[in-house]
Structure formats: C-alpha cells, structure tokens
Design brief:
- The complex is a heterodimer of chains A (about 300) and B (about 260).
- With about 300 residues, chain A is of the alpha/beta class.
- Chain A has 2 domains: about 1-215, P-loop containing nucleotide triphosphate hydrolases (Rossmann fold, 3-Layer(aba) Sandwich); about 225-309, Alpha-Beta Plaits, CATH 3.30.70.980.
- Chain A is about 40% helix and about 30% strand.
- Chain A contains 13 helices and 14 strands.
- Chain B has about 260 residues and is mainly α.
- Chain B has one domain (about 15-260).
- Helix content of chain B is about 75%, strand content about 0%.
- Chain B is built from 12 helices and 2 strands; from the N terminus they run H-H-H-E-E-H-H-H-H-H-H-H-H-H.
- Chain B has a two-stranded antiparallel sheet with strand order 1-2.
- In chain B, helix 4 (about 60-95) runs antiparallel to helix 6 and helix 6 (about 105-135) packs across helix 7.
- Chain B is globular and about 60 Å long.
- Classes of the chains: A alpha/beta (about 300), B mainly alpha (about 260).
- The interface of A and B includes residues 73 and 101 of A.
Chain lengths: ~300, ~260
C-alpha cells in the first residue's frame, strides 16, 4: 500500500493534509492519533468510503481512484461499530456476506465453519447475533472480514469498548492472522494495543503524520529510556529548572503537580529522583503512551493553545 | 457532473435483494399477516358499512368497487413503509448499507437492491390480496386482466419505493417520516379514487388526483379486475406510471450515494 501526498478536504476543512506512507505486505501497520486527527478519514479513503481529494493512493498495487471494486474484493474491512446482520445467526452472517464476494454456497459454508472456529465461536454458530456479547460480536465482525480470504485487513479501532479479556482474545486472533501472512492496518487510540500488535506505526494529528517508525524506535527517539514521575515539594516548573534535572533530562513536562522527566535510561531516572525534593516519585520505562502524549499534547489546554497559535 | 449521475449498477443488485428476501422469509408469516389484515379491515369495514348505504357503483356492489382500490393502495403502502422505515433502519440503525458496501457491491447497487425489494413487497402483497379477494368472492367475477395486476403493482412499487427512499436519504431522523405519511400518502389514499370514483370530486380536485401515482394505479387495477375502463385510458395510466418510475428511480440512488460516500 502506498500513499503520496494523500489529501482530503471537505469544503474549507482539511481532514488529511497530504500524507505519505508505504506499508509493506505482511506487516501490521498502525495509525495512532487523537480523535479528529484524520485516521478514520484515511481509512475511509483506503476503503472507498471517501473520494480522494488529491494525491496518489494505491492499495495492493491498484489505484484506489479507479479500481475500488477490485480492491474491495481483495481486502477485508472491520468498521468501528458492529454492523452485523441482527436478523441472522452467526453462521448465516458469514454465509450471506460471502455471497457478496461471489463465494459459491458450499465453499461459503466451509469457510463459515472454519472462521467460526478461528473466532472461538463454533458453539454460537446457530445463535442470533443479538444474543452475542460485545466481544463475541467483535470477533464475528473480524472473521466476517475474512470470508473472501483477503490479502489486507483494515480495522478501525478493533477493540474500542471491549473489556480486557475480550481485547486480549482479539489481539491473539489478530497476531495469528498476521503470522499467516495477512497485512493488517489498524487505527487505535490504545497505546498498549499499538505496542502489542504493530510492527510499524504513524502518529497523526491535525491531518498530518507527525512521526513514523517501529514502536521501540519511537519510544527511544521521542521519550528516551526512562521516565521519572515526581510529585515535587516546590512548584514543578521550578523543579524542572534544577541543574541536576537539566543535566539528566532529555525532556521535561509538567502535568498538574507532577513533573515528568524523560531520561536516557532507567538508572539515570532512578539517580535523579534523590536530587529532586519530592513528596513521592515513581520510575518507569518510557512507553508509547509517552510518545503519543508528547507529540499530540498532554492536556486539552495544550491542544487549544496550539490551535490558537 | 455526469459521472456523479451515472449509476454504478450491475447484477450484484440481486445479492442485496436476496439478503432482504432472506430476512423477510424468516418472518414471512407475521409479515404477511400484518400487511394483510389492515387492507381487509378497511375493505370489510368500509365495504359493508358504507356499502349498506351505497348499494351499487356502476354494476357492482360497493365492496367490490373498493376492492381493486385496496389492491392499489396496499401496493403503495407496502413500498412506502419499506422504503421509509425499513430502509432507514437498515441505513442508520442496523448499518446494513455500511456492511455491504465494504464488499465489491457498490453503494448504488445496495440502494438499487433495497428499492427492488420494496417493489417486490408491493407486488407480493397486492397479489396475495387479489387472490384473497377472489377466493372470498368479494370480487366474484375477476376479468382475465387481473393477471396483469402484478405488473402494475410492481411499477407502483418502484414509484413509491423511489419516493420513500428519497425521503429516507434526506431526513435527519426517523420521526420525519410521519410528515411524509400524513401529508402525502394519507391524502392520496383518501382522494385518489380508492373509495369512490374521482369523477365525483370537483374539477380542481380531479386535476390534482391526476398528478398522484396512486390515482393511475387505482384506475388500472379497477379496469383490469372489474373492467369498465377504456383501453386507451389504461394505456395512458400505464405510461404515466412507467415514466414516473424511470424518472424517479435514479434519484434516491444518487442521493444515497452522496450520504454514504463522502
């Protein structure tokens, strides 16, 4: 998949402002960003739900502007909200859906049984969709996107609204899917999900791609190795100016009455803790969440301040 | 601009239609009964109640006179309810349209298949009512032309299916259909000749009736089942419905596409 200068405008509003990305086959690629960053609009362009305003977009080597029907035959789409057929059983959902891809009836039935097993829903084959739990519906949505044996599966926030158990089951299925050679493309605002699943990811905000890379690379480059979260005795902004902090910190950030200091590694963060007057502190490895929040703004205030600039 | 008006429609329309029929067949008994009872309530209540005071219209009983009108109006209501509430629920609440356009089926085909389903329901329901009317001897001597009624009600289904779907594509919420039904369908039901000959209305009302699709459906159904309408008049009514269907059907498909693909 390839995008060059991909742009989407609605009247005066630019939802996606000329982004470039290339996704190799067989990888899991993530789109991260706050609400309104342009992730979903990008997905909509990839799946034919939104015409491209400008730029180039190729999916599986086909031009998305002219060959959308052919593309849709070779990809699977899992939308943000469940849109299963409430009128049918779990198995019939898969069989009817396979019909839209011209899968012959006998083959569709075989695939339905295979996919129900893959989703761990073989016992629910004859259950009406309205009787399934949230997690079961999500798994059914995901395997429904596999009835045409797609080369690429696009998932828009695949685990939003699920409980932790259900999320882990979905992640397991997605990892297995990627191992079998399917390219995965997903949007999420769960950083743990991105860290768990994605080989590479981009962080988007205001319709642009801010950074792209492997999760570990991005953490190293944008958050360092260790983080000291310290509730300081003095106002945190003053603490940030202490010489010891300035020496050890790659970056500092203030969140409420807490000072966050990003250091090169964990020992550096640990060593620094003793040198800052504090009520309490915590040392932890940097995560994708730190990268995300640093790039897209930690609080509403910062976001608004940016917009005013 | 021309590209925006060209329809992307092929045989995949039938996939959508099959899906809807499959849902319908799951509940076909309750679907048929509910759609069946209402026309008969009108027919029996009004036919016998008013028929007591109006012994004959032309050379048939009042109930028999009303019967073809009920066939016509049931075609109108079947397509109208399906293309308003039915379509809107699939579009907004069940997200059936979203699910299907993720596949090689185009947005235009999803809308066209939905419309085909509305027209199918018109044809089916009115055919069942026609059969019931003959079996119960409410229409004691149907003419051979009765076999052409499904052609008329199918066309009627496309006209009202298209009108209803235009409303579905434009309304912000499901309550708005009440305006369409109360201000458009109900007056048509009362004034388009279902219950009395339109000729009894004042001239201006007759002219208005001519511009409504139901008037032509009623005239055709009555002419085909009971006779008494000139062949040329019926050809004119048929052409009226045909032209209306051809002109109207593409409009909701384009409007729905604008709602789905943004």
């Amino acid at each position: 998949m390839l995008a060059v200068g991909l742009t989407k405008r609605y009247g005066d509003l630019t939802a996606v402002a000329g982004i470039d990305f290339a996704i190799p086959r067989g990888t899991c690629f993530g789109f991260l960003g706050p609400n309104g960053a342009g992730k979903t609009t990008t997905m909509r362009m990839l799946t034919g739900r939104s015409p491209v305003t400008a730029g180039r977009l190729e999916v599986l080597g086909l031009d998305a502007r002219v060959a959308m029907r052919a593309i849709k035959g070779r990809i699977g789409i899992v939308s943000q909200d469940d849109n299963l057929d409430e009128d049918f059983t779990a198995r019939d959902n898969l069989i009817v859906y396979a019909g839209y891809y011209e899968v012959p009836r006998a083959e569709a039935e075989a695939r339905a049984d295979e996919l129900l097993a893959f989703a761990g829903l073989q016992d629910k084959a004859k259950t009406g969709v309205d009787k399934l739990s949230g997690g079961q519906k999500r798994r059914l949505c995901i395997v429904r996107a596999l009835v045409n044996r797609p080369e690429l599966v696009v998932l828009d926030e695949p685990t939003t609204g699920l409980d932790p158990q259900a999320r882990h089951i979905v992640w397991g299925r997605l990892r297995e899917l990627r191992r079998s050679g399917v390219t995965l493309l997903l949007t999420t605002h769960y950083m743990d999900e991105a860290a768990q699943l994605c080989d590479r990811l981009v962080v988007m905000d205001h319709g642009r791609i801010l950074v792209e890379g492997e999760p570990s690379e991005l953490i190293q480059a944008h958050a360092g190795g260790g983080v000291l979260e310290v509730e300081t005795d003095v106002p945190p902004r003053e603490a940030a100016d202490l010489p010891a902090v300035r020496a050890a910190a790659q970056q500092t950030e203030v969140a409420g009455d807490t000072l966050l200091v990003y250091t090169a590694d964990l020992p550096a963060a640990e060593a620094l803790a003793a040198q800052v007057p504090h009520r309490s502190y915590r040392v932890r490895p940097a995560t994708l969440e730190d990268v995300f929040l640093r790039l897209t703004g930690r609080s509403m205030g910062e976001e608004e301040a940016e917009e005013e600039e | 601009m021309t590209a925006a008006l060209r329809l992307d429609v092929g045989y995949r329309v039938l996939h959508v239609w099959r899906r809807h029929m499959r849902v319908w067949l799951r509940y076909w008994i309750s679907n048929l009964i509910t759609n069946f009872v209402e026309p008969f309530v009108y027919l029996i209540g009004l036919g016998f109640g008013i028929g007591h005071f109006v012994p004959r219209i032309g050379n048939v009983s009042y109930a028999t006179f009303v019967a073809p009108g009920i066939i016509a109006s049931s075609a109108m209501f079947a397509a109208s309810f399906e293309s308003t509430f039915g379509t809107y629920v699939r579009l907004v609440y069940q997200k059936t349209f979203d699910a299907i356009i993720a596949t090689p089926v185009s947005a235009d085909e999803v809308s066209a298949g939905d419309l085909l389903y509305s027209a199918t329901k018109s044809t089916l329901f009115s055919a069942v009512i026609l059969i019931a009317l003959v079996v119960t001897r409410l229409v004691p001597h149907p003419l051979a032309g009765s076999f052409l009624v499904p052609v008329v009600t199918a066309l009627t289904g496309f006209v009202f299916g298209a009108l209803g779907m235009i409303v579905s594509a434009l309304v912000p919420n499901i309550d708005n259909f009440n305006y369409y039904i109360t201000l458009f369908l109900t007056p048509m039901f009362v004034f388009a000749g279902v219950f009395y000959p339109v000729a009894t209305l004042p001239a201006f009302a007759r002219d208005i009736a001519w511009f409504t699709p139901l008037y032509h459906t009623v005239e055709l159904c009555r002419g085909l089942v009971l006779g008494g309408t000139a062949g040329a008049t019926m050809v004119g009514d048929f052409l009226w419905l045909l032209i209306a269907a051809v002109v109207l059907v593409p409009i909701p498909i384009v409007l729905m596409r604008k709602r789905l693909i943004q």
